[in-house]
């Protein structure tokens, strides 16, 4: 008789984690989505822009959902597998993908874009966002909020009290205003995640590498087994993601 735990571990460890979609999780985990529908909002804004920049585009999956793009459309990404994936996905749509280390300065001139966007950026350089925006231009983004998925992170790493304040929307809006931007809209959401098996956990920790930076299956095998047994006994492991929609304008 095969060991269900080992089968799930192998499934999660062998799954392709390139790109930035999470379709593989179907049947393994579920997550609520924010009510503001970022992808649709992004598509609407792109349709009325003249020059756009999508920062840290990942594999380009969300940006590629747009129905049309402005005459000048650019995306940046730092991770080589994502750069390749985004290039294949976005170049046929007329979007140029630029390899960028996600550190300032952005490789563009001042006031180059009337729309800057980003979904779940790992780092946010407000001064650079303000610099490349034209007067009257908008930054429209969905950010990861504070203590997102910390139920899972702390299961492996233990309590992380100092990290829980990171990415707080109050801090981010203050930093945006310090860079000279005006906050037009800010919305927050706390969303339920249900993890149905450890295959999903292994997949997620291989893909979102900053959650548990030293993760390997062998290093955390005992803890994975404990989580597997917990799911078998109590049902899905429940965590919560936090998100905020932020829209900011460079004053005209």
Task: Describe what this molecule looks like in 3D.
- The protein has helices at 4-14, 38-47, 80-90, 126-132, 150-157, 169-178, 198-207, 221-234; strands spanning 29-31, 51-54, 72-77, 96-99, 113-119, 133-144, 182-195, 237-249.
- Helix 1 packs parallel to helix 7.
- An 8-stranded mixed sheet has the order 1-7-8-6-5-2-3-4, with helices on both faces.
- The radius of gyration is 19 Å and the shape is globular.
- The N and C termini lie far apart (69 Å).
- The chain has 252 residues and is of the alpha/beta class.
- It has one domain: Vaccinia Virus protein VP39 (Rossmann fold, 3-Layer(aba) Sandwich), CATH 3.40.50.150.
- Helix 3 links the parallel strand 3 and strand 4 (96-99).
- The longest helix is centred in the C-terminal third of the chain and has 14 residues, at 221-234.
